[in-house]
Write a structure and sequence with these properties.
mainly alpha; two-stranded antiparallel ribbon; 4 helices; 64% helix; 8% strand
Protein backbone atom coordinates (compact mmCIF):
# COMPACT_ATOMS: atom_id res chain seq x y z
CA UNK A 1 0.00 0.00 0.00
CA UNK A 2 2.88 2.41 0.69
CA UNK A 3 4.02 2.14 -2.94
CA UNK A 4 0.68 3.56 -4.15
CA UNK A 5 0.71 6.47 -1.73
CA UNK A 6 2.04 9.78 -3.12
CA UNK A 7 4.08 11.16 -0.24
CA UNK A 8 3.56 14.75 -1.41
CA UNK A 9 0.12 14.44 0.18
CA UNK A 10 1.97 14.74 3.51
CA UNK A 11 3.30 18.18 2.54
CA UNK A 12 -0.15 19.36 1.48
CA UNK A 13 -1.72 18.01 4.67
CA UNK A 14 1.02 19.63 6.79
CA UNK A 15 0.26 22.97 5.15
CA UNK A 16 -3.49 22.51 5.55
CA UNK A 17 -3.29 21.53 9.21
CA UNK A 18 -0.78 24.21 10.14
CA UNK A 19 -2.10 27.19 8.21
CA UNK A 20 -5.75 26.53 7.40
CA UNK A 21 -6.89 24.46 10.40
CA UNK A 22 -4.70 25.83 13.21
CA UNK A 23 -4.42 29.34 11.77
CA UNK A 24 -0.66 29.65 12.28
CA UNK A 25 0.61 32.60 10.20
CA UNK A 26 3.25 31.71 7.62
CA UNK A 27 5.41 34.57 8.85
CA UNK A 28 5.47 33.36 12.47
CA UNK A 29 8.98 32.76 13.76
CA UNK A 30 9.67 29.25 14.98
CA UNK A 31 13.35 29.44 15.76
CA UNK A 32 15.96 32.14 16.42
CA UNK A 33 19.62 31.14 16.63
CA UNK A 34 22.69 33.30 16.90
CA UNK A 35 25.30 31.82 14.57
CA UNK A 36 29.04 31.95 15.30
CA UNK A 37 29.30 34.64 12.60
CA UNK A 38 27.07 36.88 14.69
CA UNK A 39 24.16 36.60 12.29
CA UNK A 40 20.79 35.78 13.78
CA UNK A 41 19.18 32.88 11.90
CA UNK A 42 15.38 33.04 11.94
CA UNK A 43 13.22 30.15 10.72
CA UNK A 44 9.61 30.97 9.82
CA UNK A 45 6.66 28.61 9.46
CA UNK A 46 6.73 29.12 5.68
CA UNK A 47 10.37 28.10 5.46
CA UNK A 48 9.80 25.07 7.67
CA UNK A 49 6.89 23.88 5.50
CA UNK A 50 9.02 24.30 2.37
CA UNK A 51 11.92 22.41 3.95
CA UNK A 52 9.60 19.54 4.91
CA UNK A 53 8.12 19.53 1.40
CA UNK A 54 11.60 19.37 -0.14
CA UNK A 55 12.51 16.33 1.95
CA UNK A 56 9.20 14.68 1.04
CA UNK A 57 9.86 15.41 -2.66
CA UNK A 58 13.25 13.69 -2.37
CA UNK A 59 11.62 10.51 -1.03
CA UNK A 60 8.93 10.70 -3.70
CA UNK A 61 11.54 10.87 -6.46
CA UNK A 62 13.43 7.97 -4.89
CA UNK A 63 10.16 6.04 -4.91
CA UNK A 64 9.76 6.83 -8.63
CA UNK A 65 12.88 4.82 -9.47
CA UNK A 66 10.97 1.63 -8.74
CA UNK A 67 10.22 -0.39 -11.87
CA UNK A 68 7.20 -2.11 -10.34
CA UNK A 69 3.77 -1.84 -11.91
CA UNK A 70 2.49 -0.15 -8.75
CA UNK A 71 4.60 2.90 -9.62
CA UNK A 72 2.26 3.67 -12.56
CA UNK A 73 -0.64 3.91 -10.11
CA UNK A 74 1.49 6.12 -7.87
CA UNK A 75 2.23 8.45 -10.80
CA UNK A 76 -1.48 8.67 -11.54
CA UNK A 77 -2.26 9.57 -7.94
CA UNK A 78 0.54 12.15 -8.01
CA UNK A 79 -1.08 13.72 -11.07
CA UNK A 80 -4.44 13.82 -9.28
CA UNK A 81 -2.72 15.47 -6.31
CA UNK A 82 -1.14 18.11 -8.57
CA UNK A 83 -4.50 18.93 -10.16
CA UNK A 84 -6.13 19.08 -6.71
CA UNK A 85 -3.37 21.38 -5.44
CA UNK A 86 -3.87 23.69 -8.40
CA UNK A 87 -7.60 23.88 -7.77
CA UNK A 88 -7.10 24.35 -4.03
CA UNK A 89 -4.60 27.15 -4.72
CA UNK A 90 -7.13 28.93 -6.93
CA UNK A 91 -10.35 28.42 -4.99
CA UNK A 92 -9.74 27.72 -1.27
CA UNK A 93 -9.10 30.68 1.02
CA UNK A 94 -5.83 30.46 2.95
CA UNK A 95 -4.13 28.38 0.26
CA UNK A 96 -3.47 31.19 -2.23
CA UNK A 97 0.03 31.90 -0.91
CA UNK A 98 3.51 31.73 -2.37
CA UNK A 99 4.34 28.88 0.00
CA UNK A 100 1.46 26.74 -1.24
CA UNK A 101 2.27 27.64 -4.85
CA UNK A 102 5.79 26.28 -4.33
CA UNK A 103 4.36 23.10 -2.76
CA UNK A 104 2.07 22.81 -5.80
CA UNK A 105 5.07 23.21 -8.11
CA UNK A 106 6.88 20.51 -6.13
CA UNK A 107 3.96 18.19 -6.80
CA UNK A 108 4.32 19.04 -10.51
CA UNK A 109 8.03 18.18 -10.34
CA UNK A 110 7.02 14.89 -8.70
CA UNK A 111 4.67 14.09 -11.59
CA UNK A 112 7.17 15.01 -14.31
CA UNK A 113 10.09 13.27 -12.60
CA UNK A 114 8.02 10.17 -11.91
CA UNK A 115 6.91 9.73 -15.51
CA UNK A 116 10.35 10.65 -16.88
CA UNK A 117 12.20 8.22 -14.63
CA UNK A 118 9.71 5.45 -15.43
CA UNK A 119 10.06 6.03 -19.17
CA UNK A 120 13.86 6.08 -19.01
CA UNK A 121 13.92 2.95 -16.86
CA UNK A 122 11.52 1.15 -19.21
CA UNK A 123 13.54 2.15 -22.25
CA UNK A 124 16.73 0.85 -20.66
CA UNK A 125 15.02 -2.42 -19.71
CA UNK A 126 13.77 -2.84 -23.30
CA UNK A 127 17.22 -2.46 -24.90
CA UNK A 128 18.52 -5.67 -26.43
CA UNK A 129 21.95 -6.47 -27.81
CA UNK A 130 24.41 -3.70 -28.73
CA UNK A 131 21.81 -0.97 -29.09
CA UNK A 132 22.58 2.35 -27.38
Amino acid sequence: MARFFPFMVLAVVAYGVTVAAMGVPLSSEILNLRLPSGTVFTLTMSELLLAISTVVLFFEIMNATSAKSSSIFNHGLSLVLFIACGLIFLFVPGFGTGTFLIITLMSLVDVIAGYSISILTARRDMTFGNQE
